[in-house]
């Protein structure tokens, strides 16, 4: 079983807020884009930034990507349903070439990996610690001129997006202590990952994640992709989206 529906919303961020209620506090983005009748409406987009369970939120910012790496970026503003395959413009953290680590990052040579790490070729996952992810978001979001939000649309008739995170690789509920494991296991599938693409008017600062002490903890770019997943998920999945 996969997500009931998957797609991408393209538009302009008009507001943002942080809600801490529930097991997974969310950073909410207000995105303006055409609605079902073509008139501009506000979409509420809920992005996971913190967890109250033992499955921690993790984020990774990719700055060595370009709009041309993502075919969905060329779509007009508004919501577009996407098929769960490589040709539709869908995201897959484990399979999309834009998310693949370079050869140096996978090298058996510690020296090659160290060079890649030093020069920022291997983006690092940032694990939530308190409100560290939520605190980064206002700076990252406020200057974006256009955004693409990948995930699942709200099913209650209102305009919005959720499941803006990796939607595969969840633990088997028969062996997991996570009380929500069955829900996520049932939604797993390939080529249906959530995430954000962000474009800026000028240079924007993004956190690198873990860095050596002699390197700046930030990188600069005019375009970036944001991946979000949970610490209980694995990037090694089969064609059913379940862990190998």
Describe the structure.
- This protein is mainly beta and 244 residues long.
- The chain has one domain (7-230).
- It is built from four helices and ten strands; from the N terminus they run βββββααβαββαββ.
- The chain has a five-stranded mixed β-barrel with strand order 1-2-3-8-7.
- A hairpin with a 6-residue loop joins strand 7 (144-153) and strand 8 (160-162).
- The longest helix has 11 residues, at 132-142.
Q: Secondary structure elements and their pairing?
A:
Elements: E1 7-19, E2 26-34, E3 40-48, E4 57-62, E5 78-81, H1 103-106, H2 110-118, E6 126-127, H3 132-142, E7 144-153, E8 160-162, H4 181-187, E9 195-207, E10 218-230
Parallel strand pairs: 3-8
Antiparallel strand pairs: 1-2, 1-5, 1-7, 2-3, 4-6, 4-10, 7-8, 7-9, 9-10
Structure summarized in a few sentences:
By secondary structure, this protein is mainly beta.
Class derived from helix and strand content: mainly beta
Q: Name the quaternary structure.
A: single chain
Query: What is the CA–CA distance across the termini?
Result: 17 Å
Number of helical stretches of at least 4 residues: 4
**Gyration radius over CA:** 17 Å
The main pleated sheet reads as:
5 strands, mixed, barrel
Question: Notable features of this structure?
Answer:
244 residues, globular, single chain, five-stranded mixed β-barrel, 10 strands, mainly beta
């Amino acid at each position: 079983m996969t997500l009931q529906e998957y797609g991408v919303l393209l538009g302009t961020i008009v507001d943002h807020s942080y809600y801490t209620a529930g097991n997974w506090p969310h950073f909410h983005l207000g995105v303006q884009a055409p609605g079902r009748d073509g008139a501009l409406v506000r979409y509420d987009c809920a992005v996971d930034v913190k967890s109250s369970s033992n499955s921690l939120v993790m984020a990774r910012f990719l700055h060595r990507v370009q709009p041309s790496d993502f075919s969905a970026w060329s779509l007009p503003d508004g919501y577009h349903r996407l098929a769960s395959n490589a040709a539709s413009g869908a995201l897959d953290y484990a399979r999309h070439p834009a998310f693949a680590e370079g050869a140096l990052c996978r090298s058996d040579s510690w020296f090659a990996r160290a060079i890649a790490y030093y020069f920022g070729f291997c983006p690092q996952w940032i694990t939530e610690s308190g409100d560290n992810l939520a605190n980064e978001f206002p700076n990252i979001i406020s200057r974006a001129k256009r955004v693409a939000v990948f995930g699942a649309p709200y099913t209650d008739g209102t305009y919005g997006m959720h499941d803006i995170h990796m939607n595969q690789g969840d633990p088997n509920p028969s062996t997991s202590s996570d009380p929500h494991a069955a829900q996520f296991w049932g939604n797993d599938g390939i080529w249906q990952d959530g995430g954000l693409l962000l474009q800026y008017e000028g240079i924007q600062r993004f956190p690198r994640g873990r860095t050596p002490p002699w390197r700046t903890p930030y990188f600069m770019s005019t375009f970036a992709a944001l991946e979000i997943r949970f610490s209980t998920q694995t990037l090694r999945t089969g064609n059913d989206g379940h862990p190998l």
